[in-house]
Amino acid sequence: MNKKLKIAIISSKGGVGKSTISMQLITPYLFERNNKEVVHHYEFDDENSDSSSFGASYLSKRHQVNVASPLLREVLPEIFAKDESICLDIGANKTTMTLIEALYSSGMINFLDLVVIPILDGEQDGINASFIYSVLKGYRKDMKFLFVLNRVKDIDYVKYQFENYFGDVRGIFTSIHSVSDNLFPEDKEKYVLMPDAEIIKYSRRFGLTIYEMAKQNRDFIKELKNSYNDISKEEEMKLLSFKNYVSKSAKAYEKDILQTAFSKIDAILEGGEHA
To answer: Model confidence over 29-63: pLDDT tens digits?
Structure first.
């Protein structure tokens, strides 16, 4: 994939994991699909800078953009004109509509390759996701979407957890609101799962993405064996044991969750049958 993709993560509701998804899923996707070139991550949020938690990450160069600037409509074309992969992490509440209106009025909405809408399992999450989808679809009929069902507790029972997305799968509360009720047919299956996992928390503590941690080639078991008979190295052994656990967890999450999501995004962008 040679095209420098432009992907935005948008939700009008705070606390749904926009920055986590932008750094843990979209930035690694752009990095891997574009010959491992640095991704430019633009955070549009005057109140928070969540991407700073990943200060040790080499995948992206992070930029903070002043949303309140009267020159925002001029800033956006400057960003989009650059020959680089970009991830736009757009803040919630008033910031959301400010950015959407600026994207529309500047014409840059037509150059977004994908809009990612994170969603948790609350009813208000479904309402907000449906609203953002409807607004963007109204501005651009051919917009490509991906919904990320975040903090999934159990993959086998995801439809029961996310009734606000799939609808009332039990058939009891027939009037329950669901995102899928409001989607165009071509967008109904365009979702991926981000299961809740300890490795997400630990990756922030290390200042790296799960993707980066999974790619480390350090052999912690070999180092543990070398320290095993040395009592003075008890603390070192504890640390190595923990790092081995973190490494294994990161590799499993990257293989089972991230790569599956990468393939889904590929299919959406390429217009494949199984998107």
So the answer is: 999 999 999 999 999 986 666 666 788 899 999 99
Identify whether 132 is part of a domain: yes
Number of structural domains found in the chain: 1
Burial classification of residue 185, based on how many CB atoms lie within 10 Å of its CB (0-12 exposed, 13-18 middle, 19 or more buried):
exposed
CATH number where 145 lies: 3.40.50.300
Q: State if pTM tops 0.85.
A: yes
CA 106, CA 66: separation in Å to the nearest integer? 16
Domain that holds residue 24: 6-203
In 3D space, the residue among 117, 120, 94, 100 whose CA is nearest the CA of residue 183 turns out to be 117
Pairwise CA distance, residues 116 & 98, whole Å: 17
Contact status, residue 25 vs residue 9, Cβ threshold 8 Å: no
